[in-house]
Amino acid sequence: MGRYLIYLSYVGTSYRGIQIQRQAGKPVETFKTVAGVLEESLRKLKLANEVKVKTSSRTDSNVHALCNTVHVDLIPRKDFEFDPDIITSLLNYHLKKSKENISILKTVRVADDFSARHHAAWRSYVYRLAVIKDLAQYNGYPWTSLEFERTQRVYPPFDVDMFLRAAEILSGSHNFLSFTTKMFLKSPDSNPIKNMSICVKKSSAYMEDYQASSCEGMEFWEVHFRSKSFLYKQVRRMMGAMVGVARGKMTQKELKSLLDNPSLENPGIINALPGHGLYLKNVYIPNEVLVYVPKEQPEEGLAAEDKDVCPSKTEELSQEKVAVPSSMLAHPGVSLDLLHFEKQTPTELTNHIYQAQRSSAKETAEAEVINS
Question: What CA–CA distances, in Å, run from 143 to 48, 153, 200?
């Protein structure tokens, strides 16, 4: 088996969350999800197994990810193992061709028992707010394309001191059952007690110097959350409570009561903020669990002198060539012209690399026999 950890980033407003939506155990094809698109791209590879992506962190509709992770098993039909860099390149090729708002950041070969969800040490999120300073002077400040569906707008009154006080109340170890929904009962994470770190920072508009006219009447804030795991909709509901306290819709006493008396039956005094202001910032996985030690198995059909044909270091190819990692090459002379690469589909490219690998190894072995 070949298990891989994939780091990815995406704009969430294009998708119905990351997880594939299912009804009666079958995927709902009308719901476009990040995992669904990723699985479709992975199927372009020649695989002997059915692709099933396992996510480390669930993001809902409209929620973005600066960095999320998934793991997936990839078993090729032919007798070789996919190089992680090739997987990254081929996936980005397909995603760009399909005009998807998903980018593959990195692929790592991991142990066959690795779990993207269980081996994550902690996750972090950030929520962006744009607070209107003066409603009397507010004239509908138009969003630029950089801010639209990337930041949540908040109307006055907005007391910054109360906002910071609410963040202090929610920080630390608490039972956050009041900050999720009954969907929590279906979640694999059944422990509502979390140790929460919250940091509030003054921020600014994207490329502020170039869109000052549209954002001068706003004050931007970022709220950073960090914990080992989060409940369903927890961050958005905590943000709703913090904004509620800042706007006088909820008292500090009421906020504390939600922590002191955790319940799924609490009245709906919390309005979860929309997903488009929320970003999954990072999923931290310790380096020690990423260590992969491949099993040494001699390639079937090759003589003993053929087994060490691959160069030990990555060949540095010219700018006119596509840099193919050395683990996919059987001879330093094997490379791909950029023009030829652009005319090939990723599946054809994979086959081309494989055939080049085998033929180069054979030619090297024959040359050694003749010279001897």
Answer: 48, 10, 23
Residue 349 near residue 336, CB atoms below 8 Å? yes
The full DSSP string for 310-331 is S-SS-----TTEE---GGG-SS
Pairing of strands 122-132, 278-284: antiparallel
Measured distance CA(243)–CA(154) in Å, rounded: 8
Model-level pTM? 0.77
Residue 204 burial (CB count, 10 A): 13
Structure tokens at 247: 């706007």
* Active site members: 60
> Looking at residue 296, what is its pLDDT?
66
Q: Reply yes or no on whether the pLDDT at 225 is more than 90.
A: yes
DSSP category for residue 206: T
What residue type is 4 in one-letter code? Y
Name the residue type at position 319: Q
pLDDT tens column, 29-47: 678 999 999 999 999 988 9
| Tens digits of residue pLDDT in 71-110 | 999 998 887 889 999 999 999 999 999 999 999 999 999 9
Q: Alpha-carbon distance 242 to 248, whole Å? A: 10
336, 34 Cβ separation under 8 angstroms = no
d(Cα 39, Cα 91) in Å, to the nearest integer?
A: 10
pLDDT tens per residue, range 243-270: 999 999 999 999 999 999 998 887 577 8
Query: Is residue 66 a contact partner of residue 280, using CB atoms and an 8 Å limit?
Result: yes
Closest CA to 56 of 120, 150, 149: 120
Helix (H, G, I), strand (E, B), or coil: what is residue 336? strand
Query: For helices 252-260 and 160-170, what crossing angle results, to 10°?
Result: 10
Q: Which two tokens stand for residue 318?
A: 């010219």
Distance between the two ends of the chain, CA-based, in angstroms?
39
Sequence length of the chain is: 372
For helices 252-260 and 234-246, give the axis angle rounded to 10 degrees.
150
Q: How many angstroms separate the CA atoms of 17 and 271, rounded?
A: 20
What is the Cα–Cα distance from 166 to 249, expressed in whole angstroms? 12
